[in-house]
Amino acid sequence: MGWYEHELGWPIAGTTPPHLVTGARFDALRVPAKVGFAALTRFPRPGELGPVALDGRQVLLLVAAGTAEELPGLLEWLEWSGIPLDLTALGAGDLMRAPAHPEWGRREAAYDRTAPVWLRPPQPGCEVEPTLPAMCFAGRAGTDGAGEPIGLVALVSALATACHRLRLLENQPCSFSYASRMDAGTRPRSLTS
Predict the structure, then answer these.
(1) Quick one: which of 69, 27, 70 has its CA closest to 50?
(2) Residue 128 in contact with residue 20, Cβ under 8 Å?
(3) Is 144 helix (H, G, I), strand (E, B) or coil?
(4) Half-sphere exposure of residue 187, counting CA atoms within 13 Å on the CB side?
(5) Nearest Cα to 150, choosing from 54, 34, 52?
């Protein structure tokens, strides 16, 4: 895993399998895979999101260092604080499993189905920090907005909404289904006439 240390300059923990140390160069937002794929669909242009990894049934979105400390306050400000969400952050002192080199990912995943892989890999030779969603003001002087990372507020708001939507869909039967109407004690109209 010298790729992380030498080409990207990211610290790794000397464990097997290797883990990336969060909090130094980046933090990571962890969401269910369905929510992560929805975020990739919502922000499809290259450069809008930083690197994104799939680890089992969770997606890790790399964001600016310090985001883990800001997340609870940001969720409260966005009025999501009292609602249970499957949205967590890895920050200073945390570790995330290191996905294989993007060119090796598919080959390694064939041997180990639980091995993390990059969905949007980091670009070697490019500083990762400018590509990460961070707390920023909309629009920067001298840019046209193309390929510019989205703000952290927009990303967290979209992820929180998607997490809540997923929770509602998985935990509640459709209110108009036959089974839910029978459970509620109201019979469908076709059975009452």
Answers:
(1) 27
(2) no
(3) coil
(4) 5
(5) 52
Q: What is the C-alpha separation between 104 and 18, in angstroms, rounded?
A: 15
Model pTM score: 0.77
Could you say which DSSP state residue 130 is in?
G
**Where would I find the H helices in the chain?**
2, 33-42, 67-77, 105-111, 152-171, 178-183, 189-192
Q: Could you give the count of Cα atoms lying within 13 Å of 153 in the half-sphere of its Cβ?
A: 9
The dihedrals phi and psi of 187, each to the nearest 5 degrees, come to: -85, 145
Residue 6's CB is within 10 A of a number of other CB atoms, namely 10
Q: pLDDT per residue over 26-82, tens digit each?
A: 999 999 999 999 999 988 876 778 889 999 899 999 988 889 999 999 999 999 988
Sheet strands side by side (includes 27-32): 88-90, 27-32, 58-63, 52-55, 117-120
